Amino acid sequence: DLQAASLSLAAQVANLWYQxxxxxxxxxxxxxxxxVNRTALELVRLRFNAxxxxxxxxxxxxxxxxxxxxxxxxxxxxxxxxxxQLSILAGTAPGTFILPAKPDLIALPSLPATGVPADLLANRxxxxxxxxxxxAADRRVAAAVADxxxxxxLSAGLSTSGASTHDLFDNWLSSLAANILAPLFDGGLRQxxxxxxxxxxxxxxxxxxxxxxxxxxxxEDALVQEKEQRLFLDSLQIxxxxxxxxxxxxxxxxxxxxTDYQRILDALLSQQSLQQNIITEKRRLIGxxxxxxxxxxxxxxxxxxxxxxxxxxxxxxxxx
Length: 320
Known about the structure:
Elements lengths: L1 H48 L5 H35 L26 E2 L7 H13 L1 H9 L5 E2 L10 H17 L9 H65 L5 H35 L17 H7 L1
Antiparallel strand pairs: 1-2
C-alpha cells in the first residue's frame, strides 16, 4: 500500500513536471506571436498612414497585441503556480525549490508493436497487495493463481495472444474459482467455520480478479488514448501548415489591396490558436504515457530516455 501511494505521488510529480514544460512553452510561443503581431501592426500602420485603410484595422491589430499581453501575464502566473505545486510535492517551501533544468516536452519513445504483456500488471502495488491478501486467506489458491497467470498482450483495442477478453475473465477466473476454491475445504472443522473460511477466501479471490480487471482497463484506456492522440496531433500539424500558408497568401493580397483586413485577422487568430493547441496536446500525449506507466505499476514496456538531467535530491527518493 505504501508503494501504491509512492507510485501515485511519482505520477503526480511527472504530470506536474510536464504541465510546467507546457506552460513554459506557451510563454515562449506567446512571445513569438507578439513579434509576428507587431510586424503585422507595422504593415497596417503603413497602409493607414498612406490613407489606404481606415482606423478600424489599426485598432483591431492593437487590440490583438494587447490581448496577447493579457494571455502572457496569465501564463506566467500559471507557471508560478505549477512551480509552487511541484515544490510542495517535493517537500520544500514554495519559492525555495530550484529546478534541476528547464522542463521540456520530450519526444516519446514508440510503444512496442507486439503490445504490452499482461504479466507486467503483476508489478502493480495494488495487485500485489490483493495477491498477498489472497495468500493470507489460502496459500493453495494463491499458488494456483500464480501458476496459471493468463498470457495476454495488451494493445489499443485489446488484441490478445492465445486468449480473448472473454477467455481471460470468464474462463480463467471462473475456472479457478470453481476448480480450486470448491474442493479446498473438507472435513475436520465445524461446518459454520468452514463456510466462513471458504467465503473469506472466495471474497479475496474475487477482489484480486476485480483489481486485475481494473488494471487491464486502465492500460487499455492509456493505450487507445495515446494512439488516437497521435492521430489528433498529426491532424493539428496539417491544419497549422495550411493556416500558415493561408496567412502568408492573405498578407500578400492585403499589401496589394485585394482583400480586407478582417480575413487576415481571422487567419492569424486561427494560426496562433493552433500553435498553442499543439503544445497542449503534446503535453496531453505525454500524460497518457505517464498513465500507462502508472497502470503498469511504474514498469515501462519500452526504453526510457536516459539523457535527461538528474532529479534534484529532493525528488530523487521518488524515483527509488
